[in-house]
């Protein structure tokens, strides 16, 4: 388990991280979410040893992260860093060999990854001849070829079309299934919601929420229900303690203080007509994110 412990970081008189503290668990995909300038990239660079924290530390299973462990992390920066005039396969093999992988194994692994990521027919082309989305896929392959024991990916889905996103999700899930802790940042909240096991939300250099999707959803939203009937549901507004969020004829979404209050609404609806559906409302990550960072 990787633990970022009470990390602070300042640049001159500007403090950009304040007591940042969260864990990245083995075998889990942890989504790191925040707006531009929130502190995601700075946190990742401290984790990787590129920057030193002003205070705090990064540990692995309770011990300070060693240089040896850091060398085995697969890292993909947000900025593209591959060689534009070098063939894709050749440079990915080269980068894997810098990690001590044999040429044969590096070639096998790079070829497998490029094929899975949809670049099988382009692997001998120079990087600069590829579209930006395909260059992104090549960067993902470069982060994975040396079979890392942990992954840190900064905006890995940027510029990818839906099919490429699905291919990438499958590959990353396979890495997590080996027991590797995986941390990735993304602005694509719908992708984060589908992929991640745990979430860390950062704003203004501070962690605003961390945990599983359900834990964050429960901690940052009030219980809400969706009700759809054959009759008009305007009467729900008159029930004490019930707060209507959205209303459209036979459909209403409302907050209730507890399950008993929600059941009171359901019983009243059944007495007035046929109930088509009644279920708890699960807010999407976009809605939770907006609530948390306020």
UniProtKB/TrEMBL annotation:
A Gene Ontology term for the protein's cellular component: plasma membrane
Gene3D superfamilies in the record: P-loop containing nucleotide triphosphate hydrolases (3.40.50.300)
This protein's UniProt keywords: Antibiotic resistance, ATP-binding, Nucleotide-binding, Transport
Record protein name field: ATP-binding cassette domain-containing protein
Naturally occurring in which organism (per UniProt): Candidatus Agrococcus pullicola
Entry-linked PROSITE patterns: ABC_TRANSPORTER_1 (PS00211), ABC_TRANSPORTER_2 (PS50893)
Transferase recorded as keyword: no
GO MF annotations, alphabetized: ATP binding; ATP hydrolysis activity
Compartment(s) where it occurs, according to its Swiss-Prot or TrEMBL record: Cell membrane
Topology in membrane: Peripheral membrane protein
Keyword ATP-binding appears in the UniProt entry: yes
Principal subcellular localization: membrane
SUPFAM superfamilies (UniProt xref): P-loop containing nucleoside triphosphate hydrolases
């Amino acid at each position: 388990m990787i633990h970022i412990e009470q990390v602070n970081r300042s640049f001159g008189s500007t403090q950009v991280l304040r007591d940042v503290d969260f864990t990245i668990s083995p075998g889990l995909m942890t989504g790191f979410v925040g707006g531009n300038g929130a502190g995601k990239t700075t946190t990742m660079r401290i984790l990787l040893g590129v920057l030193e924290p002003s205070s705090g530390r990064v540990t692995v299973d309770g011990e300070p992260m060693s240089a040896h462990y850091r060398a085995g992390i697969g890292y993909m920066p947000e900025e593209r860093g591959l060689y534009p005039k070098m063939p894709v396969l050749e440079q990915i093999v080269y980068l894997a060999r810098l990690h001590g992988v044999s040429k044969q194994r590096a070639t096998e692994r790079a070829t497998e990854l490029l094929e899975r990521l949809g670049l099988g027919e382009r692997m001998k082309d120079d990087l600069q001849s590829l579209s930006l989305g395909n260059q992104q896929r090549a960067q993902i392959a470069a982060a994975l070829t040396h079979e890392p024991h942990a992954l840190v990916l900064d905006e890995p889905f940027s510029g990818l079309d839906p099919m490429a996103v699905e291919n990438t999700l499958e590959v990353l899930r396979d890495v997590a299934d080996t027991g590797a802790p995986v941390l990735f940042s993304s602005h694509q909240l719908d992708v984060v919601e589908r992929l991640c096991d745990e979430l860390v939300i950062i704003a203004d250099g501070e962690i605003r929420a961390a945990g599983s999707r359900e834990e964050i959803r429960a901690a940052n939203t009030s219980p809400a229900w969706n009700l759809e009937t054959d009759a008009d549901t305007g009467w729900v507004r008159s029930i004490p303690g019930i707060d209507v969020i959205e209303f459209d004829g036979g459909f209403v979404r409302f907050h209730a203080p507890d399950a008993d209050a929600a059941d009171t609404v359901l019983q009243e609806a059944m007495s007035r007509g046929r109930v088509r559906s009644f279920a708890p409302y699960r807010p999407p990550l976009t809605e939770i994110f907006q609530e948390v960072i306020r």
